[in-house]
Request: fold
Amino acid sequence: MKRPERDCLLVLAHARFLRAPERIALAGMLGGTERLVGLTTDDLAHLLGRAVRTGGWDPAGLLAAAECTARLVDRGQFSCTCWSDPEYPALLAEIHDPPAVLFHRGAAPDPGRPLVGVVGTRLPTGAGRDAAFRLGFELARESIGVVSGLARGVDREAHEGCSRTGGYSIAVLGCGPDLIVPAASRGAARRLLEAGGMLLSEYPPGTLPRPWHFPERNRIISGLCRSVVVVEAPDGSGALYTADFALEQGRDLYVHAAGLAGSTGAGTRRLAEAGATVVRSAAGLLADWGWQARAAGSARSAADSARSRSRAPSPRTTAEAGAAIARLAREEIDGSGDARLDGPYGGA
Reply:
């Protein structure tokens, strides 16, 4: 991509009212930032072919924000990849609404490494939590990357299982790449980066989490992957949005046998009844691909051993558990539990 068009995309990435395909189309039409700065709201509506009802169109302000982001990139605190760059993930580029710009820190994925999305509820049962950790661990042992959202519960366990054996994983964030929401996932993010993984977002640095960001990021989780596994999900779970995106994008969809029981497995059961393949391990997924797992039994044993060493103690009383759940839900909704990563990985 030519530098003027790239600069234009970086500016448009800060215009959050635009849809991803609109940013790409506008950058192609404008060819650079010079024409963009002079656009009025009416001009923008004419180019987009739709009404623009927003007070957020401030080209000068957007340009200043993009220049700030560019300085962070130049200092090496973050990297950015535009949709037409050669290193842009090929599978993600194929979806109908690929992010115009990806902001990331850490190591880019090997184009030859298959990726599997592992998603599920923030409040899994013990069986669901263990299954997510084990699946992340086993996939890593087979040199398959794990993609998830770093949220509490299933997502974080999958990342932790992958990191525990030095595997590659990508955490797709619903905020800027300099923020970790909730703060309790900060340790998991550090371990992911130390294992050679990546934190990735379509939102520029400094972007706070918003409720609609999480469904938007779910299309990226599935879009990066060959397959998606829903470990455990109640009705209404955000993981079911990821499953819908996976089907829409032509990805293989699986559910985990450990997440089919009870109310927390209601959404998982519904997917299974609709035809999603049920798996019990990474070996089952690979068998469905037509691959042979290298050491299924030993991988499971090693994963269980690693999981037992990392198991966190549960709250000691019912009252403590209830208070913990209420706090977690509040932090997820309002972003009050966010934390910035600093130290060797930089910070904004």
Notes: The chain has two domains: 3-106, 115-310.
